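Budget justification, computational time. The allocation requested in the original proposal was used primarily to generate structure tokens for proteins on the priority list. As evidence of use, we reproduce two of the resulting records. The first is shown immediately below.
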Amino acid sequence: MGKEAGRRKLMLRLPELRGALADQYSEALGEIFEAYDLATNALERFQKQHPGQQTLINEYEQICREIEQEVVGLLLKKTEP
């Protein structure tokens, strides 16, 4: 469940890569999708339950951005001729 949830979240976050995200799958990408799902869930939870812990929120925002960048890099590399 976490893998597909992460893929769907990335498809919303990276609409320009939606087709590539839908078409591509590997065990490595599956693990990244799951990590993204876990990170975004944690971020949402911290934002709602602990809004005063800005350092923690910033850390998870950065983690999410890094995962997004990793996915972009992997997908662009796979689509190159």
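The second record produced under the same allocation is shown here.
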Amino acid sequence: MFDDHFEAWVHGPVILRLYAEYADYGFGSIDEKPDVPVFTEDVENVLEQVWDIYGKYSANELESMTHQEDPWINARKGLSPLQKGKNTISDKDIFDYYIKQAG
């Protein structure tokens, strides 16, 4: 869907480009309508499934969930819990983890 990689920040996975684009909103609602790319039907179906599963959770709940998942944990190895870091979360770790979860 995109070429960016996730970084394992203290509060969870971050895509730096998106963070920079929306950082001015802070904890407020994002009222700007983004340019939405055209996705294939398969990608749209996956995105809908992700929303159906995770869309009901708050930001704090999602943060807590990411802190329990292997891809984020692996990328944060060697860092203390509140230590800033920009370690990349391995695409392979993400793929393997969610394939296992779908199991």
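A brief technical remark on that second record: The longest strand covers residues 7-9.
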